[in-house]
Specification:
By secondary structure, the chain is an alpha/beta fold. It contains 3 helices and 7 strands, in the order H-E-E-H-E-E-E-E-H-E. It has one domain (about 1-165): NADH:ubiquinone oxidoreductase Nqo5 subunit (Beta Polymerase, domain 2), CATH 3.30.460.
């Protein structure tokens, strides 16, 4: 779907005030307000044919020059019939780190949302089982945030030491 057609479809279905679009190196990008994110993702899946959630990740913009927001959540969508891709971004700031879960649209969002929650602390409202996936449940921090110390906060001593003989 050409950039202009995608823009027209989203404007018709979701309203022009709820997003912006851009084209960068043949990548179509949609920047959505968090409150309209689910409606835009739903439109892209049901009306534009982006039937595969290829990736879901987050970015911490804490020390980025000229960054206006702390976190970005990025969805990479693929139309498996045409091979087209679109990237949907939304931006968040503390203390409101909540976005709607994409799980009702793509079941593959399950573990990706859990990973983003575990590493960044972003909450996906409506996720059926949002809990840590990589870190222990009692772990209190979010390791991929830019303000997390590179050597950790002293929690390494809580993990058991594994050797080759144990494997």
């Amino acid at each position: 779907m050409a950039h202009d057609k995608l823009l027209a479809l989203l404007q018709e279905r979701c309203g022009a005030e709820s997003f912006t679009t851009s084209l960068f190196r043949d990548n179509q990008r949609v920047i959505a307000a968090p409150a309209r994110l689910f409606a835009i993702l739903e439109c892209l899946k049901l009306d534009a044919g982006f039937d595969m959630l290829a990736d879901l990740t987050a970015v911490d913009y804490l020390y980025y020059p000229d960054a206006k927001d702390r976190f970005g959540v990025v969805y990479a969508l693929l139309n498996t019939a045409t091979g087209e891709r679109v990237y949907v971004k939304t931006y968040l700031n503390e203390p409101d780190l909540q976005v709607p879960s994409a799980f009702p649209l793509w079941k593959g969002a399950d573990w990706m949302e859990r990973e983003v929650y575990d590493m960044y602390g972003i909450i996906f409202e409506g996720h059926p089982n949002l809990r840590r996936i990589l870190m222990p449940e009692e772990f209190a921090a979010f390791p991929l945030r830019k303000d997390y110390p590179l050597r950790g906060k002293g929690e390494r001593h809580n993990f058991p030491v594994l050797t080759r003989a144990d494997g």
